[in-house]
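Bench notes, afternoon.
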Amino acid sequence: MRSKRFALGGASLCAVALVATACSSDEPKQEFSVPKALCGVAVPADALSQLLPSSGKDLSVDDEGNQADGSVLCKVAVDDHEMVLTLTGERIETGGSARDILRSRASVADPKTADDGTIAYSAAAAVSVVKCGGAGVVAEDISTLVKVLEPGRQDEAAMRDLISGYTAALEKSEPCTRES
């Protein structure tokens, strides 16, 4: 009987030691602030956070171009990694589909789609197409491509949420060019 108690006590002690070790370990964490906008357009910070490296101290965003001029490029860097996420936006001919653009620009074989096909995404990349058209608007669309690079993290749901949130904010800014 005594040996059973000892065995149980020893097992309990091991379990407590294992939990204490797991709780006290120094898990890597994101020490940087997650941006609330990329290329001047609001993004859902929680979705962006899920795509950035799980640890790091310094984050920087390099924005180039202007949506009004027709193209933008945002490069997100964490610590010593030159780029962990990129976002590009450009004006394109009307009629391009998000799915076809993602297949050709990011080599995604079978992307998922959302928002009536104006968004296509995978765990590592996403594309949206803002349709511009109608009276007084130049006949062109706006394509946005987001890509995660190592050591960024791939997450299909976060990528869908990021591109959806970015696209909704972009549409609110009325990015389509008016005819002169």
